[in-house]
Amino acid sequence: MKKLSRVIYDSINRITCPYGNGHNGVDLGWRYDESQNIVHPHCAGTVYATLVNVSDGSSYGGGWGNYVLIRHDNGMFSIYAHLRTGLPVSEGERVDESTAIGIIGASGLADGRHLHFEA
After folding, report:
1. DSSP symbols for 49-75
2. Average pLDDT, whole number, for the chain?
3. Beta bridge partners of 45
């Protein structure tokens, strides 16, 4: 299976809400095959912050639910939000495109299961 995206498999065909009109990221839908719901960083960096153990429907943490915020080597940041609980990375950890940083979920104020990706 060829990985077509750095963030999740086949992301171009999974956009459920594009960037724009007040939406500062891209929402990517989930798949029944859980192996296709594993989230990876867009590029190498260091985990800058995480929020864990946020339940579905909770506005805690700004409504993003469980998230991973990465500071990339070029100084840019990216966030991966609405992840399932039990994040496999922690603050200060070095990650790259092959590192699994979470699984698409519906934590926080998510309107269904999806990944919110923002740079």
Report:
1. EEE--PPBT--GGGGT-EEEEEEETTS
2. 90
3. 72, 95
